[in-house]
Amino acid sequence: MKNSINSTQKNVEDASSTGVRDYRFWPMFVMSFVRTFFYAIFSLALPNYLIYDKNLSSDLVGTIGSISAITYIAGPFCARYVTNYFGIKKTLIISTTLGLIAVTSTIFVSNPYILILIRGIEGFLNGFFWPNTLNLITSWEKNHKSKKEINFLKIFNYSWNFGLMSGFVVGYLYVLFVGSEFYALIFSVIIGYTLIPIAFFLEKSEKFEMYDNRAVIVQNVKLLPAPTKISEDSDKHPYGSDKKQINLMNVPLVMALGGVLFFASSKGLFRFTIPYYFEEIGIESYWVYAVVLIQQTLQIVGLNLIYKFKKMRIGYMMGLGVIFISTLILIFIPLEMWALFIYVPLLILCGLFFGFIQGVAQRITVDKGKHRNSNKYTTLNEVFIGISFGVPPIVAGYLYGIRFNYVFIFLLAELAILASVLVWNHMKFARQEKLEVAKNATKI
Fold first, then answer.
1. For the range 341-346, what are the long-range contacts, defined as Cβ-Cβ under 8 Å and sequence gap of 24 or more?
2. Beta pairing partners, 209
3. Terminal Cα-to-Cα distance of the chain (whole angstroms)
4. What's the half-sphere exposure (Cβ side, CA atoms, 13 Å) at 22?
5. Could you tell me which residues are beta bridge partners of residue 206?
């Protein structure tokens, strides 16, 4: 006990003298990489195995593949209570361990309905992992005091993307040379179990407050603090007078959430059709990994481009993405299954526009959450992602059993409604900005 007190006092003295709190970030970096790496392989190997090897019906494959996204929605809400009791580190360890047990069970279960149940449990536990990961990283960014700013979230995103892309590459090569999706499932799960020992190296995040130029540990951070009100006076804005950030705060949230629905629904349905499309015309399953890899690469390019555009252009980029994908769906509707040379290149290209739409939605929700000091926007974003990735593929599974083209007719109807909402809100926001500019010009 005495050693613990001395250690805490030393941390306070170090923080007060240097203003620095060094966080052991490598476990989180490695966990993010390993989790996305093994899930990249698992998420493609499972439907490929069910379609190519088990010849399971499209409605069951759609449900098995998407139920985890739906149950994920409930995870963040329940995670709040569990995290308040155990803390972030213990919750991450528990959810990771139970999640891996569920993933392992999917390999050895043959009954599709039991498989649906297990996948639902797995998705629910994923809802404990990712929100808590983001909360932990956010607390580090808030409490890390250094002359050289460290963007933990940026580093985390790099590890996430690197794990995802590496998983697709390794999955492609593994199935190409080994020739078995079942063995790819086993391989991915074995990699996943390395998450458990890594999780024990995570450290608890401490919250520092400055009193009389001394850093004092006031509590262990478990969740983000409650929202705080922001002054509408730009000169007294607690985050400065950055017009770009303030204007982004005024963008209607429905634009971001509508963008998430548009992006996730399209991507989920397109990805659902790829293995069925390839299996129908006799293309080996490892090409699924190659197509998804290239598409995901273009999505990351589009996502990064959004952060280089000025505020007034990001709405147009979302509009461009919506128009391109809607046009793509119109092209796909009359296509027959043999039109591979048209379908695949266009499907790959749409990854760039997925990145545009996702990037705009992400900028809006992240800025709102950051400046209002609330995780409400992140939670809403996760809920809408779960709905969009979960529900449409289940419907598409039933439609695919009737006729291939019906999948795209359903998607077109859904996206037409979303596009109308997005365009209307963008026009409304543009009018409000013009009125605000005119009002300010009159004052001058």
1. 343/277, 344/291
2. 216
3. 64
4. 5
5. 220
Instruction: Name the helix (H) or strand (E) containing 220.
Output: strand 214-220
Among all chains, which residue has been given the structure tokens 């990283």?
Answer: 137
Do 370 and 286 reside in the same domain of the chain? yes
- Any idea how long the chain is? 444
Strand partners, 216: 209
> pLDDT (tens digit, 9 = 90+) per residue, 368-407?
766 666 667 766 777 787 787 777 778 777 777 677 677 7
pLDDT digits (tens, 9 = 90+) for 205-247: 544 333 333 333 333 333 333 333 333 333 333 333 344 444 5
Whole-angstrom distance, CA of residue 67 vs CA of residue 116: 7
**211 bridge partner residues:** 214
Instruction: With beta carbons less than 8 A apart as the criterion, state whether 99 and 122 touch.
Output: yes
Q: Is there a contact between 289 and 188 (Cβ–Cβ < 8 Å)?
A: no
Closest to 247 (Cα-Cα) out of 97, 62, 429, 443: 429
> What is the DSSP code string of 235-265?
GG-TT---HHHHHHHHS-HHHHHHHHHHHHH
| Total domains in the fold of the chain | 2
pLDDT tens profile 346-358:
778 888 878 877 7
What's 191's domain CATH number?
A: 1.20.1250.20
> Structural domain of residue 52, as residue ranges?
23-225
